Amino acid sequence: MSQRQWIAVDEYFTGVLIDSDTDNDADNALHAALAASDAAGLPAIAVSPPQGKLLNLLASLISARRILEIGTLAGYSAIWLARALPPDGRLITLESEPRHAEVARANIAKAGFADLVQVRVGPALDTLPQLAQERSSGRAEPFDLVFIDADKEHNADYFAAAVGLTRPGGLIIVDNVVRGGAVLDAGSDNSAVQGTRRLIETVSADPSVSATAIQTVGVKGYDGFVMALVKTP
Q1: Contacts of residue 40, Cβ cutoff 8 Å, sequence gap at least 6
Q2: Which residues, 6 or more positions from 109, have their beta carbon under 8 angstroms from its beta carbon?
Q3: What is the pTM assigned to this prediction?
Q4: CA 121 remoteness from chain centre
Q5: With bands split at pLDDT 50, 70 and 90, how would you rate the model's confidence at 233?
Q6: pLDDT in tens, 30-72
Q7: CA distance 42 to 96
Q8: How many structural domains does the chain have?
Q9: I need a surface site. Which of 7, 123, 135, 213 has the fewest CB within 10 A?
Q10: Nearest to 165 by CA among 148, 188, 140, 195
């Protein structure tokens, strides 16, 4: 098995199962978002099409009305998630880089979701307490699904905050937790690896969630994600 083969299989699945299952406007919007990201010089780290479709299906399966995303980049995953929302749904996506947020807003608007998606700019560690305050004051409902795909160093903090913002029965998904297998290296000096290990320990120690981790291969290489269900008290 090789990276070339992983990419070829992903491209096969994308062509047969995903591109053929989206209408032309939706498909064009997704491709346009990636093209705009490249043109703006943003890092090519968006989720793959199969991962995007998985997020869309998970949101659809739980009939998500409110979604939180931590890490917007160019809005590609936000578009996939927004496609699962009902007309009265809401997606709030947090982005620390103003330039990324600018590109994302344009992509989301071109996809037709400007009324459903709000991009909030600023460090998530500052924005998440604001969301918690909105929740505790009764001004906002809990989220049905949270997708975390931001800087890995703070994933444990993002996850802990997400648990408090998610309804019982809701899902929290954290991307990029395998790190090419480096997550096994307890002595790593890589901050992303250590942040991921802290995340796994945080998830394990939290009795309010039931979680698993899945390894993946594909156009993004060897990686994986955590999926946690928030339990009913």
Answers
A1: 74, 99, 103
A2: none
A3: 0.96
A4: 16
A5: confident
A6: 999 999 999 999 999 999 999 999 999 999 999 999 999 999 9
A7: 13
A8: 1
A9: 123
A10: 140
Q: Say how far apart CA 100 and CA 25 lie, in whole Å.
A: 23
Alpha carbon distance 208, 206 (integer Å)? 5
Q: Round to whole Å and give the CA distance between 120 and 98.
A: 9
By DSSP bridging, strand 166-175 and strand 221-230 are antiparallel
Q: What is the dihedral of CA 184, 185, 191, 196, to 10 degrees?
A: 20
Burial of 43 (0-12, 13-18, 19+ CB in 10 A): exposed
**Taking each helix axis from N to C terminus, what angle separates 24-39 and 98-110, rounded to the nearest 10 degrees?**
160
Q: What is the pLDDT of residues 79-126, one digit of tens each?
A: 999 999 999 999 999 999 999 999 999 999 999 999 999 999 999 999
Strand partners, 7: none
Long-range contacts of 215-218 (CB under 8 A, 24+ apart): 215/178, 216/51, 216/178, 217/1, 217/6, 218/6, 218/7, 218/9, 218/10, 218/48, 218/50, 218/51
At 166-196, the pLDDT tens digits run 999 999 999 999 999 999 999 999 999 999 9
Both tokens of residue 185?
Answer: 């290296």
For helices 191-205 and 155-165, the axis angle rounded to 10 degrees is 30
Question: Which domain range does residue 7 map to?
Answer: 3-230
Tokens of 89: 């749904």
**CATH number of residue 127's parent domain:** 3.40.50.150
CB 163 within 8 A of CB 206: yes
